[in-house]
Fold Alpha/beta hydrolase.
Amino acid sequence: MGSLAGWRCGDGRRRAVLTSPVANLSEVADHVVATPGYGAFAAMIAQGAHFGDARIQPERLLSPEAYSRIGITAIGCLNAAFTAYADLSGPQLVTPAYSTDPAFRTYLRVNSAGNQRLGGPVLLLQGEADTVVPVGVTNQIAAAECRLGTRLTYKTYPGLEHDTYPWVQGIDDGAMPDILAWTADRFAGRAAPTSCTR
């Protein structure tokens, strides 16, 4: 979900390009549960949280039917997981603990952006037609990072989705000219612009 590329140049400073990032895990976790067809993301978030914190138990967060399919998240490609979870959303997908489990909700909050300044500079790109990570979520993260002092260049793209499919263009493909130009400027030692006005 989303892309991240980061690197250090000879000066030791970090740079990063983020496209449609799952930067606010709490909001995105709730969004994918409520969106038909995105059940695989909810299962992967629960499983990933468990790998990060063993106190988080996916079998408590997911419905029995959803948990019975969890194996596909470890061995299948994204399309296989989407197929396995295509018919599950809302209460057929998760239990009430998905919204209330303290360890899980803390994990989501702590692993979200907008809580501390990011090492920069950062290029943050978001498709306005993204149905996985809504543009409003990324707008909030961009505003929070600007308030925190992150050197951020933020740009949205009308019509771009989260991923590229035969019938739609995703953010990585649609924004590639900007990604390459921004990255080349960093390697050339040119200062990164900022869209923050704080």
Residues 39-52 form the longest helix (14 residues). Residues 1-11 have pLDDT under 50 and may be disordered. The two ends are 29 Å apart (CA to CA). Residues 3-24+113-187 form a domain with the Rossmann fold fold (CATH 3.40.50.1820).
